[in-house]
Amino acid sequence: MEIDRYDWSAFACGCGKTAAHLADDLKLLAEAQSQEGARALRIDDHALIQSFPQEPAVPVTAVLMAALSGDLAPGARVVCLDLLLRLVDTDDEDSAETCRSIARQGLWVLYRDLWSSTHPDLVIYAYLVLRAIETDEKRLRTYRDAGRIRLP
Description:
Radius of gyration: 15 Å
Helix content: 55-70%
Number of strands: 2
Strand content: under 5%
Order of helices and strands: HHHEEHHHHHH
Shape: globular
């Protein structure tokens, strides 16, 4: 549903075309069964060029948060969190703040991944995203220091 909220063809994509193809690519990302399959879609190359967000960055952030609220395979979750991290921490502060604001709306989804400990990369990426977006540093510190999660 979140994908359908946007006119993807109205956005210039990082690949030089319109972002119309991203709607299908994001659906494939949510359906990916492995980290390799999810990374092969290279959605990051369409939403970001190096660390500079492209026009679809903000709607991609909203779609990632919607996807993360669902039941994704661990590998797809890792790729979503990795991309989310790069969207909330870019070289364009305005875009980064907009993406952080969207991510904050799903704060507890990120805490679930942090606390789940189902996959080490999920914990790490969830923590790094939370570190970028959490406004209550004491809460994040409490979770981090509870002894249940392992961070490098």
